[in-house]
Give the backbone structure.
Amino acid sequence: MKLVRDFERRLEQFVDGVAGKVFRGKLHPVELAARLVREADLGVKEGPIGPTAPNIYALRVNPRGLDTDIPSGLIRELEEVLESTAADRGWRLGGPVRVSLQPAESVSPGTVDCRVDWSPGRRPPWAFLTDDRGNRLAVMDNRCLIGRAETCDITVGNPGVSRTHALLWREGGEAWVSDLGSANGTEVDGSSSHSPLLLTAGGVIALGPVELTFNEV
């Protein structure tokens, strides 16, 4: 799994020998990362705008498998594995990813128990949409719903924009936008399609009469 291999390489750069200092026996941070990705995949729910994955993960291990406190940098790396997986697979998370590693006597030594949950919350933006007045609209979650309705992730208050007009998301290392059956259509750099449209830096999304310039953070 590429994401887990990338995690392993970053971990080696993070701290030499961190696994030997923290874990005993069979446990290893890379195995924890693989378990998190598997649990995320199993926990994905299909919703009206596509797949949504859990954003809260509690890893439980027997305390006899731990030698010392868990470095905060390791937890951040595990969270980044989940963030990267969601962006690669086109999952919405709905809130910031939180990973915890908890000792639990009930878990057999050398094994891991993982519990997941969904907790809505504000996420840092991964992109911005800029209107013709220079106003920047933050794209915070993957699978971001754009429209006139106040329930949308990004609200565009123009009567030419449908209530739920388009969907913007990341998947496979690219950014995409798709029309959701709007009255006035969706274009990218003058092109329209019934299929998702690829976005690049500086690309102009036209939601009917409204033009928004796309740029990733």
